[in-house]
Structures
1.
Amino acid sequence: MNNQLEFLKTVQPFNVLSEDVLQGVAELLQEVIYTKDTPIYHQEVTKMRGVDIIAEGEYEAFFYDSEHNKRVIEYHHKGYCYGGVSVLLNRKKSLRSVIAKKGTVVYFLHRRDFRALCQTNEEFFQFFTGEFGKRMINDEYAHFVKKPTTFEQNYIASDQLYSRRIESIEYRSLVSCAQDAPIYEVARWMAAQKVSCLFVKDAQNRIVGYVTDITLRDNVVAQQVNVSEPVSSIMDNPIVSISTEAFVYEAILLMFRTQTRYLLVEENGVYLGFISRNKLLSEQAQSPFMFIQSVRLARSVEELRRRWEKVPEIVYQLLSRGVKPEIVNQVITTVSDTIALKVIESVIDEMGTPPAKFAFIVLGSEGRKEQTLKTDQDNAIIYEDKANEQRELVREYFLAFAEQVSERLDKIGFSFCTGGYMAKNTKWTHSLSHWKRNYVSWMQEPDPDKVMKFSAFFDCRYIYGEAAIVDELKAFLDEELQKPLGRFLFHMANNAMQYEPPLTYFKNIKTFTVGSQEVFNIKKAMTPIVDLVRVYALQNRIFKTNTGERLEALLEKGVFKETEYQELMQSYYYLMSMRLKKQAVQIINDKTPPENFIDIRSLTKIEQVTLKEIFKTIANFQTNIKVKFTNALFG
């Protein structure tokens, strides 16, 4: 027994207990010896009698997937305590499957005695819940914990659509012609090669455009163009390509975003061939991408409204199948963008050709491609500078245009922005030069209120019109960010401090009462991550808008370490998954408008522990950014 007592003094968390308590625990331990490799626990099946403290040897712990493959394998050795989390947080069932290796010796402590220790010693108890919270930030670990008994579902198969790469798709060889080739020769060549898309090359052998059957119909026959003209005069643009390393779902979403039917397949800067949208969609007949195609084909506001009402069901299905929340965000964004494009095009058809080039941009969560199911309109219009005599005419057109777009989006389900950040607001439809002055004013003469109010405009994303206008604005911002910015970044950093993670002094989740519920606001819990990543992106002149993409760019620049990047990414998208699923359930099951309140009593102990760990991570990053930008301000 003395040996067991001395051993316990070296084991976390038993070493926090007093000598007297340890003496009592040592007397309760039972020694167990395994003479050969022995499967001792099966995930979600074996009921834990207590906890095992490894004295000698090794435990192999893992999850079995549906095909009985071992996943998230861990090896535990002398001094490791297995079973604490299972007893405390998992209905006394083993979280993982465990094999005790030959020659392993463990000291067993019954669960009633283990629980007694947890009830009388907070630090002892927090050791197990804290360790588990850190593990739950790992996506793969969390997947098996949250869906432990669905052996009939194939985890790998359910995620295959979102893990398959372009290199696995059979693509067609490139068929091309010179840009000075006559149109009739190009048509003959397409017929001979049996292709519906032919690429056009310039004198340097670079692909500069493409011709499709639709090109010949719309640009040649409908316009009665002389077929002896060079193909360059009627070819389509832009050229859109994708790497063989990209995922299939990324290719489909890219096609919808760029409204192209064909993608060039590229590897190490070399074009290998091309793929068509029909090819990809035909292989994904039951996927949400067919739904996106149905949105594209919708003809009326009412039809678009019915399509948008189906989105919560798709979101819930995707999350339930284990699809990553960042992918679900992309699906929502693509549907939303597609609807907006349909509306914009229909208004232009009715009002006639715009009197100036323009760009329709989206802001805030939509600009970051992080829309949820509780969403409103955040958009603006930037039009080219025109001569004085045309200014009023141009402005009158775009304000009327914005009014029509906004009204139709509202009918579809994208409610008016309560803060007025919409193109229909005269403040947010202006010329490019006016927008440049806006940004200079926000950056050169900042104050806390102004920075907080206009931070969403640094998440702007082009969705329709002349991309070159937005490119020029970003180039202008790039130049401005290289100038002395005074207190601008300090105020931006301070903005990331406005929403504190909902933790009490004792590291429990802080709630407030709404009706009969004890809730926290998950949107506000996520806001600090969005804000602090934005300020780091601006400081490093990164013009991506998506939080995950900004984090990746900051990692590549060495601003964040790998561990910091992983902590923020996993924390942010864990919260996003919880938020999306809650909203989908409210719409589908409760038939109520979605909200951002999470009732703490609706969460499992596992989810509560994970959230506490995430909130600690956010608080730590807030502290770091406060120190960094306060020091920078005062030198």
2.
Amino acid sequence: MSVRIEVPRRVRPVRHRPAVTLPPGEDFAPAPSPDGRRVAYLSDRAGTPGVWVRDVDAAEAVALPGGDEPVLAVSWSPDGQWLACVVAPGGAPRTELWVLRPDGTQRRQVAGFGRRSAALSGWLPGGALMAVTETAERGAAVLVDAGTGHRRVLAEDDLLTLLDVTPDGGAALLRRGPRNARWLELLDVATGVRRRLFPDTGRGSTDQGWFGPDATSVLARTDAFSELAALVRVDLARQALAPARLAARPDAELEHVAFSADRRRAALLWNTYGGRSELSLLDLASGVQRAVAAPGEVLDGAVFAAGGDLLCVTAQGPVQPREVWLVDPATGTPRPLRPDTGAARTGDSGVAPQLVDLRARDGLPLSGWLYRPPGPGPWPTAISLHGGPEAQERPGYNPLFQALVAQGVAVFAPNVRGSSGFGRTFVAADNLAGRYGAIADVAACAEHLLDSGVAILGQLGCLGRSYGGYLVLAVLVNFPGLFAAGVAECGISDFHTFYAGTEPWIAAAAVSKYGDPHRDADLLRDLSPLTHIDRLDVPVLLIHGANDTNVPAGESAQVAQALAARGVPHGHLVLAGEGHDFLAWANAEAARTATTGWLTRHLAATATVVG
């Protein structure tokens, strides 16, 4: 077995404490004003994510009125007159689009009415016209005027997302297709004629796209032409030619691109091996790319002010809550938006993880982040499984991991096959029957922890949310005797009931990943944990949001009912007012507390105090 342990580069372990104080107050998802003098952003310091505005040189921020519902995204109009907010009523996957003035007045809903879910793709230059996707049974590309609320539907189709519109409104860029198999289409707005961009390679996916300068080209983040996602350009006048590669790395995947308003400068967020971020700035005219110091282990939310002379980004790390940073593109110098950023906001508690390599049972390379309590092992250990599965465990801020380590529980957070960040082959390796391999990867991680002296049999547990919650249930029924306890949060338990109860657009997009509920019925039945629930005989805590329409709450309820019928110890926590993601800080903390208590109790953990 090949094993590599890497010490983190930027975060060092700090003194261990008997308990971790985890105050709310993360700041994230910045949206600079067009002139770069103010930044709107989201913060949960009031208990639920809401919109705050701060002058870039001010000591205090102002909270804007936004109702009681959590806000998922905010964006500033190019004319500076409006803020657009994506709101999740009841915390559910369905979202609404609201607009308000930067002073908090004239707040009203403009999209996402009824059963439709709304997402903002961006603004047309200079004014207050928004490019919006509304999704229900089908997707609709819509232009919405923030001032008047006037709507114009450009196109409707299955699995359709509006990505961009030319400044004159004459052409639109659409994304089509299911998970891991998306492509771009160019829409002529006047005629309604659509044509597919890029040749169909039969592999990979194109998830992000923009019109280039003067709308004569399309820029795209794609892995359809390389194993690792890259930035490419296609000349619209010569589409027969292969796309030109603008930015690519053999050692990192391009995760996100943010363009200046004139599309002549781009900020590139690179995902290096294991999930650390690197930031670079690209001049599209010269092709020159230069690295910028990253203000944290993991970066996201990059966005330019309209003039291109200010870049905002969200940064975080294992002991660094999400914070907004400002980058001067001319110098590459980062500075925090919030004056107290960089202070010991976690009470100097927390540990930094180590990156560990291992091998799956079939030899596939795997990796994960290991959080160790102080002192020698073995320890009670929990394997944490991320959602997605097209997501990635990264060295970001995770209060749950720190709380478990403070109670003497080691945490190993792996990236099993199907995770993003490791190339298109790896992310597609769990499709359909490949899911058996992903389930076996969790067992391989457990065996590695036992063999390497991290864990001991009888004190090994697993936890996960969303797809990770599914994996928890799947490994417990497929590998009885390996784990002593589990916590499954918002996880699928039966693919048949999941497909019947989830949102229609979620079901349609999932077919390429999980399988068709009719054509692949036998496969999905066997992969469903509920089919084999009689094999589950260890204590399991089930946690779900009452309003979840992504993975409906009944997925956990039917497991609880089956375990109760057999007398298997279990807990069932349903959080009112929450959907698939627990957005209210009090509810997220309730889930963390319940998870920590369940695992420490059933893994017989004992807190170790040092110092």
